[in-house]
Specification:
The protein is α/β, with parallel strands linked by helices. It contains 11 helices and 10 strands. Strands 3-4-5-6-7-8-9-10 form an 8-stranded parallel β-sheet. It has a two-stranded antiparallel sheet with strand order 1-2. It is globular and about 55 Å long.
Length: 326
């Protein structure tokens, strides 16, 4: 059985999930089946990933065949930037629920603290980052909505039974502090990029203090970004001597060492893979433990290196300067 991360409201979130970002839609239904057969119960999704309908097909197959029960699954999705206005929040989650073929989500996150101009679901879905991709110079278009207004609409989703928990993604301590000052339902989870090159010690400590669980996306660091040209192969943390030494000592792969490091910090992790062997490998993290010296050695690799930064990629990809972390 997978270990779990306790939430402040008493629920338990599986500590290892399967991230669906960048998974080819054609591969998704079978991948969901393979993952459930190997023991996965936590699946991390988003409107913007463009494959929720295929995730829904995979979930239909495993639930319909009795391979698992809905109550044993943890399904996360995320509110996209174009749906921050309160009147658009419920239609957005209802679209995700239809695609996922579910009656409720276990967790719904505000994907980014970026509020963009609304794009109707029946016009283009997922809407992506560009307001009008056919424009002569396509750009992001903003329509500022205070986070508190979006959050109140998120709280209503809980009241209405569409969502069990709500949370945030890509937020820093200042935004979290401001949100906590007005939230009726506190965020249960923060999902952020976190790996040995971006340890985010203060953010992690603050979330522990405020009893907000943390999910680390891109827990293996640069590997998710090679294909996007957002990282160099020389930036792989798996080649670091401290990681390789620990892998040799424990009889594990370097990837398993880095994932175990994430778990021992108290975070959930959502590594992405489409390979059946890696699916199994990414779950085999509970039969060993890193020593304090190994933990400290891996943490010392920190470079504050953020691979997924709108302040970097939006300007080049979407002709719009959009920093959020500075």
């Amino acid at each position: 059985m997978l270990r779990t991360i306790p939430l402040s409201n008493g629920h338990q979130m599986p500590s290892v999930g399967l991230g669906m970002w960048k998974v080819d839609p054609a591969d998704v239904p079978e991948l969901i089946e393979h993952a459930v057969e190997r023991g996965y119960r936590h699946f991390d999704n988003a409107c913007d990933y463009g494959n929720e309908a295929q995730v829904g097909e995979g979930l239909r197959r495993v639930l319909g065949s009795g391979r698992c029960r809905r109550e044993d699954l943890w399904i996360t999705s995320k509110l996209w930037n174009t749906y921050h206005a309160p009147e658009h929040v419920r239609p957005a989650v209802e679209k995700s629920l239809r695609d996922l073929q579910l009656g409720y989500l276990d967790l719904y996150l505000i994907h980014f603290p970026i509020s963009q101009k609304y794009v109707p679901i029946d016009h283009r879905y997922p809407p992506g980052w560009l307001y009008d991709p056919a424009a002569a110079t396509p750009r992001m278009e903003f329509s500022p909505v205070p986070i508190v207004e979006t959050w109140r609409a998120m709280e209503e989703l809980v009241d209405q039974g569409l969502v069990r928990q709500i949370g945030i993604s890509n937020f820093g301590t200042s935004l979290i502090r401001d949100l906590l000052a007005s939230a009726r339902i506190r965020p249960a989870v923060l999902q952020v990029e976190m790996h040995p090159y971006l340890t985010q010690e203060k953010l992690l400590r603050y979330c522990k203090q405020e009893e907000i669980a943390v999910t680390a996306f891109s827990p293996l660091g640069a590997m998710s970004y090679f294909s996007l040209g957002m990282a160099q192969t020389s930036e792989s943390v798996l080649d670091q001597s401290v990681v390789r030494a620990a892998a040799f000592h424990h009889g594990k792969t370097p990837a398993q060492i880095v994932l175990r490091w994430g778990l021992q910090r108290g975070t959930a992790i959502i590594p992405k893979t489409s390979q059946p062997q890696r699916l199994t490998e990414n779950l085999e993290l509970f039969d060993f433990a890193l020593s304090e010296e190994e933990m400290q050695g891996i943490s010392a690799l920190n470079q504050n290196r953020r691979f997924n930064d709108p302040g970097d990629f939006c300007e080049g990809a979407f002709n719009t300067f959009c920093p959020i972390y500075e």
